[in-house]
Amino acid sequence: MQLDQATVEQLREWEAELAGQYQTIVAKQLNLDVTRGKPSAEQLSLSDTLDGFLEGNYQTDNGTDTRNYGGIDGIAEAKRLGSDLMGVPASHILVGGNASLTLMYQTVLTAYQFGLTGPESAWKNIDKPKVICPVPGYDRHFTVCEQLGIEMITAPMTATGPDMDAVEALIKADSSIRGMWCVPKYSNPTGVVYSDETVDRIAQLGNIAHADFRVFWDNAYAVHDLNSDAPQLASVFDACAKHGTDNTVIQFASTSKITHAGAGVAFMAASDANLAGIKKFLGAATIGPDKVNQLRHAHFLPNRDVLMSHMQKHAELLQPRFDAVLTALDSAFTGTGLGSWETPQGGYFVSFDTRPGCAKETVRLAAEAGVKLTPAGATFPYGQDPNDCNIRIAPSVPSVDEVVGAMEVFVTCVKLASVRQALSKQ
Which SUPFAM superfamilies match (predicted)? Predict the structure, then answer.
């Protein structure tokens, strides 16, 4: 199906054929959801032995009773787990509750309202602080900025990470830029892993940006490979040390897609100065995190070998679902010009770009046919995709058969939206 070379008669024939296929699908009254990247029930069950894992022993190695108050930055055993997960020395890690998003929000709030390195460093001291958002990107990052009134400016994603020429140009041209969001491994939603060069250039941003500039490095998929030869992410911690920019990058991760998503452990890795700033905020906001949950996670995942063996079980459940998505896309769209996509080797998403102007219509058609997709535009700040083309597919929760069914609907909707758009231009 080559729309740009088709006659009006061909387009009408294709539209009639696809409309018939679409009505057949609608009649099935499907109810499928591929909107959010949550672990499936099968994945969650891999960690059910967490329940009762401590067998009544709530003491840490140094004698701390985890049932009590205190320990605002987490217990040593959990910091060791964070070190295994993030590849950062345990001395630079703070451990929180179940959600890294909470730590990210608290860190951005601290930077904006109070300053990470004192009141004079607070972003609110300038008229319009701005944050760079590589796009397409993660909608929850955008929500944090939008709620705090921080202006978002975009930089395009490439196959190697953010377009660093564009990022560096933005920073050099505007001293009010105070931050940047990054999902460096299996980026949400494109699945891209940042190249070594990109990581190194991000580490150097502190040498050209304002002193209060921070990169929020959301490494949510640090160990979420689908296969053993998946690409590895260079250490931004080491790169910052090399370039003398230790304060520039603040890293985040969690066990939320490793154990129980609703009862995980979140981690933050940062310089001593940044840790001091966030601990000052936390000292006013909380008496301490759930140390019991931290301890049971530390015992459940006692070293990196156990962690990676556990993640292999996740991969075995996720791989067939990703295969179902990618097989459908390859079969339907390779060589047609109707869409483009990455082939991720890990993470939780497949990002698909329709022809410009077709994403919203594709999502609408799919919804009417019983398949819920992430709203078109959600992967851009303020929900505004200027080309109306990006759609995020999240195949983790449905069964493999349900993913196959959802993709049948998706393919039909993309084709129908594309043909109707082409007809409207005749």
Answer: PLP-dependent transferases
Q: How far apart are CA 414 and CA 244, in angstroms?
A: 48
DSSP 8-state code for residue 394: -
Rounded to 10 degrees, the C-alpha dihedral 216/217/220/225 comes to 160
Strands (E), 240-283: 249-254, 266-269
Total-model pTM:
0.96
**DSSP per-residue codes, 210-226:** -TT-EEEEE-TTTT-BS
Residue range 246-252: mean pLDDT, rounded: 98
Token output for 25:
């699908």
In sequence order, the 6+-apart residues with CB closer than 8 A to the CB of 158 are 192
State both tokens at 204. 């150097």
**CATH for 3-43+308-424, options being 3.90.1150.10, 3.40.50.2300, 3.30.300.30, 3.30.310.80:** 3.90.1150.10
Q: Contact 353/390 with Cβ under 8 angstroms?
A: yes
Q: 289 near 39, Cβ under 8 Å?
A: no
Write out pLDDT tens, residues 141-174: 999 999 999 999 999 999 999 999 999 999 999 9
